Amino acid sequence: MQIFSILIVIAVALPLILLPEEGKGFIDSLFKSMTHTFDFAFLSLPLAAMGFLIYLACTRYGDIKLSADQAAPAEFSRSSWIMMVFLAGIATGLMLWAGTEWAYHYAWTPFGIEPKTTEMYVVGQAYGLFHWGPSAWAIYCVPAIAMSYIYYVRKKHIYNLSESCRGALGGLVDGPVGTFINYMFLFGILGAAATSLGLGTPMIGMAVASVLGIEPSLTMDISIILACTAVFTISSGLGLAKGIKRLSIFSTVVTVAIVLYILMVGPSKFIIGLGFDSVGYAVENFIKMSTWTDSVGQSGFPQAWTVFYWAWWIAYAPFMGMFVTRISQGRTIREVILGMLVFGTAGTAMFYIVVGGYGIDLQMTETLAVSEIVNSKGGAAAIVEIFKTLPGSTLLLIALAVSGIVLLATTFDSAAYVLACATSSELGEGQEPEKSNRLFWCFVITILPLALLFVGGLKSMQTASVIVALPLLLILFCMMITTMRYMMEDRAAEEATRIGRSQ
Ligand code: NM2
Questions:
Q1: Is residue 501, in this structure, part of any structural domain at all?
Q2: What is the pTM of this model?
Q3: How far apart are CA 456 and CA 452, in angstroms?
Q4: Among the atoms of ligand 1, which is closest to the Cα of residue 196?
Q5: How remote is the CA of residue 90 from the centroid of ligand 1, in Å?
Q6: What per-residue confidence (pLDDT) applies to 59?
Q7: Which of 499, 465, 496 is nearest to 184 (CA)?
Q8: Is residue 499 part of a domain?
Q9: Which residue has the higher pLDDT, 341 or 424?
C-alpha cells in the first residue's frame, strides 16, 4: 500500500508541476464547483451525526464498555485521554483562526448583515465557535464510535477503513469498493495535513521572524517544518505513552498558559462578556447556520467557509476514528461521545473566546486594525501583530511559535501512528506498530504535503481536502448505518440468549 499510494499522489501532482498556471485556474474552479454542488450534502452530515451520537449517549447503547476484558482498567487516565484526543484533532489552525476568524467575517458578512458593524463582532465570533463546535466534533466522533465498536466489541481488525462500512455495504467492501475506501483514509490524512501545514507554517514563521527581527522567508518556513518533523519523529520513535502522551501534556501546558495570560492581561471583563454574547448567538442561530446555503442571495459565504471547514474536518475524521479507538480501551461509548463533543467544543471555544475577544477589543479601541491586516496580509501576519500588543511580547511570540510547533507535531505524530497501524498486518489490542514503519510515515506525511504545497499552493491543498472529503462523507454515513445495525443485532442476540437461559 505504501509505495502505491505515494505513486498515486505524485501522479495527481504531476500536472500541477508541469502546468502551474493552468493548474491553478482549474483548481480554483474545481473548489468552487465542488463546494457549490455538494453544499447540502456537507451540511447534512454534522446534523445527522449529532442526532446519531446524542441518541447513543442517551440510550443503553451508551453503557457499552470498549474493552475486550470488561474488568480491565482504562489504558489512559481520563485527563490524558481528553488531552490526546483534543490535540490529535487540532493543530496550529486553532490559534490562527481563533484569533482572526472573526476579522474575516467582519469584512465579508453572512446573512446579508452590513459589513464592519458592531453587530459583526458578536456574529463573527459566533461563526468561529460554530465552525469549531459540536457539529465539527460530531464529524470526528462518528468514525471513533464506529471503529471502537467494531474493534472492541466485534473484535475485528479496524485498520481497514472499509471494515466499518460493512454493515451498510455488505460484501461490496471485499472488492474494489473496499480497496477504494481504504485508500481514502490515506488521502484524507495527506490532504488535511497539507492544509494544516500550509496554514500553520507561515504563522510560526512570522512569529520567529518577528522575534529575530528578520523577514520571513521560504528557507525559514522549510526549517520550521523540519523542526516540527524532528519533534514528532522523536516522539513517534518513543511510542504512544512516552511520546504522544508527553508531547500532548507539554502542548496543553504551553497553549493553556498563553490563553490564561491573554485573559489576565487583556480586558478580562470584556472578553468574558463578549464570550457570553457570542455563545448565545451561536446557540440561538445554530440551526440557521447549520442549514444555510444562501441559494437565493448566492453570496458564496457558506460554501467558502462552512462547507470548506466541514470538508477539512471530514478529511481528518477517519484518522481521528482510528486514533481515538487506539487510546480508548476501557472507556464507555457515552464517555467517548461526551468527551469529544463537550470537552472538544469547550476547548476550542476557550481559544476563540479569549484570543478572538482580545483581537476584537484591539479593533474596537482602534489599538490595532486587525480586520485590515487580516484582509491585506492574511491571518498569520495578523495573529503576530495581535501578540505584539501584549506585554512581554517577545516571550509570548516565542511561546506562540513553540505552541504552533507542538500543536502541529501532536497531530502529525498521531497521524503517522495510525498510518503505521493501518499498514501493519494484524495488530493486537495494546500492541504498537514497528518503529521503522512509524518513522516512514512521519517522513511521508510531511515531505509529500510539503512538496505539493510548494507546487500547487494552499488553494490546491484546500481543494484536495474537499475532493477527498466527498467520498469520505458517504463513508461516514455508511459508518453510522453499520454501527447502528451491529449494535441492534448484538442487542437482539443478547436478549435471545437471556431468554433462552431463563427458560
Ligand atoms: N480542523 C480541526 O490545522 C489544524 O488545526 C488541524 C483543523 C480540521 C479544522 C485541524
A1: no
A2: 0.92
A3: 6
A4: 3
A5: 5
A6: 96
A7: 465
A8: no
A9: 341
Ligand 1 within 6 A of CB of 313:
yes
- Indicate the length of the chain as a whole number: 503
Are 207 and 397 in contact by the 8 Å Cβ rule? The answer is: yes
Q: Is the CB of 357 under 6 A from ligand 1?
A: no
Say which CATH number the domain at 335 has: 1.20.1740
Domain count, the chain: 1
Q: By residue range, what is the domain housing residue 470?
A: 2-493
User: Which is the closest atom of ligand 1 to the Cα of 309?
Assistant: 9
The best mutation among 196, 405, 412, 472 to test binding of ligand 1, ranked by most ligand atoms within 8 Å of the C-beta, falls on 196
Per DSSP, the three-state class of 57 is helix
Is 163 part of a structural domain of the chain?
Answer: yes
One-character DSSP codes across 357-392: HHHHHHHHTTS--HHHHHHHH-HHHHHHHHHHTSTT
What is the amino acid identity at position 40? F
Mean pLDDT in residue range 184-205: 84
pLDDT, the chain, mean: 89
**How far apart are the C-alpha atoms of 469 and 465, rounded to whole Å?**
6
Residues 42-69: pLDDT tens digits? 999 999 999 999 999 999 999 999 988 7
